[in-house]
Write a structure and sequence with these properties.
Layout: H1 2-20, E1 23-29, E2 40-42, E3 49-51, E4 57-60, E5 68-72, E6 79-82, E7 92-96, H2 114-124, H3 126-129, E8 136-151, H4 166-171, E9 177-188, E10 192-202, E11 226-229, E12 232-235, E13 246-255, E14 261-269, E15 278-285, E16 290-298, E17 305-316, E18 320-338, E19 341-358, E20 370-374, H5 383-389, H6 396-412, H7 414-425, E21 428-431, E22 434-437, H8 438-441, E23 442-445, E24 449-458, E25 466-475, E26 480-492, E27 497-509, E28 535-549, E29 553-566, E30 571-572, E31 582-595, E32 599-602, E33 607-611, E34 616-625, E35 634-647, E36 651-663, E37 672-673, E38 681-683, E39 698-699, E40 701-712, E41 724-735, E42 742-743, E43 750-767, E44 770-780, E45 792-800
Parallel strand pairs: 1-7, 10-20, 20-32, 38-45
Antiparallel strand pairs: 1-4, 2-3, 2-5, 5-6, 8-9, 8-19, 9-10, 11-12, 13-14, 14-15, 15-16, 16-17, 17-18, 18-19, 21-22, 22-24, 23-24, 24-25, 25-26, 26-27, 27-28, 28-29, 29-31, 30-42, 31-34, 32-33, 34-35, 35-36, 36-40, 37-39, 40-41, 41-43, 43-44, 44-45
């Protein structure tokens, strides 16, 4: 009997292990073979189930007998897998076939939409489930982004369908680029982040500049009012009152082994609602009514880009739902033009989050305005380090990409070219130990016409402690040479302290104003310089000291002497007979820029602003003296405030306030023009008056309001035609206290108020990241012209979308 019992146990034990083991597998698209995330898998008649992870993989730890797996996924034909027909010891690969499914279908539901009731509970629990509402957290993430190509199937001639080109065969063997990073990230409420890229690896390069994009494409959490993809903000379907703006539909329901219910809900903007919206589906878990997973993509194609994001959440330490997997897919349409077939460039990024710490004790002193930085040894990690820290091992194609692209990089010297690209992003062309400023090579304005020249500044290859250089240029309309030189001493990196000595003999806008700011290529304001007509010739010596103070305040203290010669016949003096067109000014002063909570990312070479949600304040204070041959005593105060607002369903509003005043009698060159940008047909330049002529008004004190509201996609969209409507309204007022010393040009103020309105239809056509549009501005009020046609100004609009 004892022997028989032992014999029975010997047989039953392996069988028990067989039936107790996990059922593992992967669910894929039957056509593309790509994994499908968040697929519903029900394995009991009671509805008990699970879902695949972000890579389409699943596992079912189950000791009881499972007869079948019921597979369902939005947009795909449901399937049932019978366990008795397969070998349980195998890793299951389950293909699903897509079906014609339109998420925009109108579904008529009796009474209250049950999906709305669920979504409203999610909204009520947003602050509880949002990780960015916690006191603190910390985690480590492994990020991988792959760039490859795909065929634009629409452009394929029928004769070539089913055939593979040499390019396709090549990219079946390797990708364009593989980027890997390991990041350590910390957070302290309300919005302080401290993130470091501790390891970086990129095929063909050692410089980690490109690794910044691997984990920065999409928002970390799907709970805030707006969700960001590639720096564009979309109204979140789980934002407040979203059921009035989005249509939700309950697609499926299943239950977890923890007795929680999971609702599968699709969503899309309601018809007739005009806002930047998303479409996709959510898995909502009744445990705190939290997001368990989400799939989202913009409702409309964004300037030649198709975007899709996925997020997967887990209930950590039975305390907090937290994202553990993020995926981003970007398709750049027709990025590679190869006759007769166009190819798309595809970027696919994955982030796997681990070592999650809920509410750890963190030191606030470790959090600075540098939100993201790269460790100096990030690109030096050994292969063993990567083998131990990758969440998923590289597949053979990814391994081959490193080998092939590394060899190409060495042959083509791509490393140096990449270093040059980063410098080029800062407005310079690198050449050995020099940088050549782009704006010194060729430029244009209405006074000089086309201007050609050259500038040279030493770079870090000579010394990171100083740079020295100069420039020259020639204007083909004013037929005058200009030149200058600079010496910059880098005193302290952390405080950004610099001493700058400069000399220039050049032209500057008559009665213009400038602030301590960098050129913003995303703003159309940069186009105003092409329209400048009124210029003075200025010989100027200046010494300045710039530094960072109080974390968010950047300041520059300066002293200069300038000899200004008017070029338009203007003279200044007590009487016309004794007036002159040449003036000597000595100035001391300070310029500053304050951007509260502005964040930056730091590479090994440079620092780039990420932005701030608060107003940015600029200020200038200068004092003119009669020291060292100066001819005038005066004081000037100037200020500028700019803020951008995002409004639900209404778009984006930008408001800029600018003002200035002078105390003391001085020539018009140191006063203020109206900041116009009129030509009968010209570029739209925001923060300027599009119908005001150059030099039409002058003042010794002024105040301007520039208002611009972008409604987004509110007009019909078809093919490349994707217009975006914007409204502009500007107001200005300025006065001058004494005109008696000014001769030979009309001195007119606008103390009754200057008014103009405008309408822009942006992005009528787009090419890659550049959109072309048209605008019409109209001038009205006390300074409107008698002839109606003279009050109009026609504009070309250029918008840049990355």
């Amino acid at each position: 009997m004892r022997g028989l019992l032992l014999f029975a146990l010997a047989i039953i034990a392996p069988l028990n292990q067989l039936f107790a083991q996990e059922i593992k597998g992967k669910i894929i698209d039957s056509d593309t073979k790509k994994p499908l995330p968040f697929v519903n898998i029900v394995y009991h008649d009671s509805g008990l189930g699970t879902s695949s992870n972000i890579d389409g993989e699943f596992s079912i730890p189950e000791s009881k007998s499972i007869k079948n797996l019921q597979i369902s996924y939005l947009g795909y034909i449901s399937d049932t897998i019978y366990i008795s027909e397969i070998n349980q010891t195998n890793y299951l690969v389950i293909p699903l076939k897509s079906k014609t499914y339109n998420i925009e279908e109108v579904v008529i539901l009796p009474g209250e939409n049950p999906a709305n009731r669920i979504i409203n509970k999610v909204i009520d629990n947003r602050d509880i489930n949002n990780p960015e509402k916690m006191q603190s957290f910390a985690f480590t993430s492994y990020n991988k982004m792959i760039f490859t190509i795909g065929k634009d199937t629409i452009s394929i001639p029928d004769s070539l369908k089913g055939k593979k080109s040499k390019m396709e065969k090549r990219f079946e063997e390797h990708h364009l680029l593989v980027i890997e990073t390991i990041n350590e990230k910390e957070f302290i409420k309300p919005d302080k982040y401290n993130e470091k890229i501790v390891a970086s690896k990129i095929s063909g390069f050692s410089d980690p500049i490109f690794t910044l994009i691997a984990s920065q494409v999409q928002s970390f959490s799907f709970y805030n009012e707006y969700f960001t993809i590639l720096d564009k903000m979309y109204l979140n379907p789980v934002s407040k009152n979203s059921t009035n703006r989005y249509f939700f539909n309950l697609e499926d329901t299943f239950y977890t082994d923890k007795n929680d219910t999971v609702f599968v809900i699709s969503y899309r903007p309601r018809k007739g609602k005009n806002f930047d919206g998303l479409k996709g589906f959510l898995h909502i878990n009744t445990n705190k009514y939290a997001i368990q997973s989400v799939v989202a993509s913009p409702l409309d194609e964004e300037q030649g880009k198709l975007l899709r994001i996925r997020q997967n959440y887990q209930f950590i330490d039975n305390t907090q739902w937290f994202p553990i997997e993020l995926i981003t897919e970007i398709v750049f349409k027709d990025a590679l033009d190869s006759d007769p077939v166009n190819y798309d460039m595809i970027a696919k990024g994955k982030s796997y989050i681990s070592d999650i710490k809920i509410n750890p004790e963190l030191n606030k002193k470790d959090f600075t305005r540098i939100e993201l930085k790269v460790a100096e040894d990030a690109h030096k990690k050994a292969d063993e380090y990567w083998e131990n820290n990758r969440i998923q091992p590289l597949n053979q194609i990814e391994k081959d990409t490193y080998k092939i692209i590394d060899s190409i990089s060495k042959a083509e010297n791509l490393e140096k070219k990449l270093a040059g690209l980063e410098i080029l992003m800062n407005g310079n062309i690198p050449y050995k130990c020099f940088n050549l400023p782009l704006n010194k090579i060729m430029d244009y304005n209405n006074y000089e016409g086309y201007r050609l020249g050259l500038g040279l500044m030493t770079n870090d290859k000579i010394s990171r402690y100083f740079s020295v250089g100069g420039y020259f240029g020639y204007g083909f309309t004013d037929k005058t040479w200009k030149y200058g030189g600079d010496l910059i001493l880098n005193l302290h990196k952390e405080s950004e302290s610099q001493l700058h000595f400069s000399y220039s003999y050049d032209v500057f806008e008559k009665a213009g104003y400038t602030f301590y700011e960098m050129a913003d290529f995303s703003s159309s304001e940069i186009y105003r310089k092409f329209m400048l007509e009124k210029m003075d010739m200025v010989e100027k010596y200046e010494a300045s000291f710039s530094f960072l103070a109080f974390q968010y305040l950047k300041a520059k203290v300066f002293a200069n002497q300038s000899v200004v010669t008017s070029t338009d016949g203007y003279t200044y003096g007590p009487a016309i007979a004794t007036s002159t067109n040449t003036f000597t000014f000595n100035e001391i002063g300070i310029k500053f820029r304050y951007a509260y909570n502005e964040k930056y990312m730091q590479t090994l070479r440079a620092k780039y602003p990420i932005g701030t949600n608060y107003p940015i304040v600029y200020g200038n204070i200068s004092r003119g003296t009669k020291w060292f041959d100066g001819e005038y005593n005066y004081t000037k105060f100037e200020a500028k405030i700019t803020k951008t607002f995002k409004t639900k369903s209404l778009g984006k509003t930008k408001i800029t306030l600018v003002g200035g005043m002078t105390e003391g009698k001085i020539p018009v060159s140191k006063l203020y023009n109206g900041h116009g940008s009129y030509l009968s047909f010209s570029f739209e330049a925001e923060n300027s008056f599009g119908t005001m002529r150059m030099g039409e008004f002058y003042s010794d004190r002024f105040f301007s309001v520039f208002f611009k509201h972008d409604f987004g996609n509110v007009l019909p969209k078809k093919w490349a035609f994707s217009p975006k409507l914007a409204m502009v309204h500007n107001y200005g007022i300025g006065s001058i206290s004494d005109k008696s010393y000014h001769f030979n040009i009309p001195i007119k103020s606008y103390d009754k108020g200057f008014y103009e309105g405008g309408l822009l239809i942006n992005n009528i056509l787009n090419q890659s990241v550049i959109g072309y549009g048209f605008g019409l501005f109209y001038r009205y009020g006390p300074y409107s012209f008698e002839k109606t046609a003279d009050n109009f100004s026609y504009k070309v609009s250029l918008t840049i979308g990355i």
